[in-house]
């Protein structure tokens, strides 16, 4: 790419993509690692089979917020796991 939505949509309609092909949805013509990357299957799930490449900014922001929350929760779980491993079987903290 970059390719615009109508071009990619026409390729999709012609059956050129499998569901595991990855797409970056971006407002610019350049790759940005901060932009989200989706498989075609995810885009169809999010936006429907008719126009999977029509991607509203609100939906993109909501997904980014969900991913940020998930990452935050995973970090918290890891922190709790490490903290729990630092305690012995009697619940006392282990020096270390």
TrEMBL record:
All copies of domain GYF, residue ranges: 1-41
Residue stretches in coiled coil: 56-83
InterPro entries: GYF, GYF-like_dom_sf
Keyword Ligase attached: no
Signal peptide: none
Keyword annotations: Coiled coil
Presence of keyword Disulfide bond: no
Domain of life (superkingdom): Eukaryota
Descriptive protein name: GYF domain-containing protein
UniProt source species: Pristionchus fissidentatus
